[in-house]
């Protein structure tokens, strides 16, 4: 007689965790063997990639996650976390409200940048020089007057986070801990944009973290997930700080600032 629970057991399939009373195995490792031995960044990678990270590669991932945690209370996701905290919701709701706005526009540049790097790399691996590959991939962006994700910043003339991350990645490449291919691609895009726009348009945090994620073999969609994981730390910190500060139903600006009304005036039914 067929096991009536067989179909139910196959309903969810996972290679991440195997659990039963008294036993928890993560990717085949007993959890008690990981506790106290893996740091949090190593555990993240084991969970999402299914393997342990070599020390140099772990340091790069850690640097990328540290660099992207916060960009101030005027960043939309951070503002939303703080506003939600003044509305009487718990930390989980404040965090969820903030995380839910990390989409294509706010939070998605790294994913798109990873896609661009992959397209340039594919052409380079086929024998095309980096400047020609960059031209082929990015010319449509310029022709349509689209922003180039990962390059330039509305606030920083040169993003200090990107400068540090690129230096760390170049050092790791010199030690053969990563290939260095995507560092070269990122630098090649910077140079090409400088020629096209006749001005410096340096890499920003999204472009630099995308370099690291690409060097580690992270797919674009997972790259966004890792960014969200990183920014969640800042979201939590701001939501908690606002909870401690108090305040009730705070909007995006003080009430005295007001807003602009653009609708009709003095309408009547007569």
UniProtKB/TrEMBL annotation:
In terms of superkingdom, the source organism counts as Bacteria
Q: Which UniProt keywords apply?
A: Lyase, Transferase
Question: What are the start and end residues of every segment in region (Disordered)?
Answer: 246-270
Q: EC number(s) of the enzyme?
A: 2.3.3.16
Lyase found in the keyword field: yes
The record's top EC class is transferase
State one molecular function term (GO). citryl-CoA lyase activity
Q: In which pathway does it act?
A: Carbohydrate metabolism; tricarboxylic acid cycle; isocitrate from oxaloacetate: step 1/2
Q: Does the keyword Transferase apply?
A: yes
SUPFAM superfamilies, alphabetized: Citrate synthase
The Swiss-Prot or TrEMBL record describes its family as follows: Belongs to the citrate synthase family.
This protein is called: citrate synthase (unknown stereospecificity)
């Amino acid at each position: 007689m067929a096991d009536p629970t067989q179909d139910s057991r196959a309903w969810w399939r996972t290679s991440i965790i195997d659990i039963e009373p008294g036993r928890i195995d993560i990717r085949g490792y007993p959890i008690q063997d990981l506790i106290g031995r893996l740091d949090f960044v190593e555990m993240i990678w084991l969970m999402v990639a299914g393997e342990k990270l070599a020390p140099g590669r772990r340091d790069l991932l850690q640097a990328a996650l540290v660099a992207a945690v916060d960009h101030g209370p005027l960043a939309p996701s951070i503002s939303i976390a703080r506003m939600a905290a003044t509305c009487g919701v718990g930390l989980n709701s404040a965090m969820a409200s903030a995380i839910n706005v990390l989409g294509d526009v706010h939070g998605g540049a790294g994913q798109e940048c990873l896609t661009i790097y992959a397209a340039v790399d594919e052409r380079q691996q086929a024998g095309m020089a980096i400047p020609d590959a960059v031209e082929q991939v990015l010319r449509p962006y310029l022709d349509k007057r689209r922003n180039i994700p990962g390059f330039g910043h509305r606030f920083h003339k040169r993003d200090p986070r990107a400068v540090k991350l690129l230096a760390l990645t170049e050092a790791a490449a010199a030690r053969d801990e990563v290939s260095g291919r995507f560092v070269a691609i990122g630098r090649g895009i910077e140079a090409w944009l400088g020629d096209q726009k006749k001005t410096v348009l340096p890499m920003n945090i999204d472009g630099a973290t995308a370099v690291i994620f690409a060097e580690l073999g992270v797919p674009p969609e997972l790259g966004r997930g890792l960014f969200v994981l990183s920014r969640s730390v800042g979201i939590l910190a701001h939501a908690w700080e606002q909870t401690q500060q108090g305040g009730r139903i705070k909007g995006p600006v003080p009430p005295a600032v007001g807003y602009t009304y653009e609708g009709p005036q003095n309408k009547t039914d007569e």
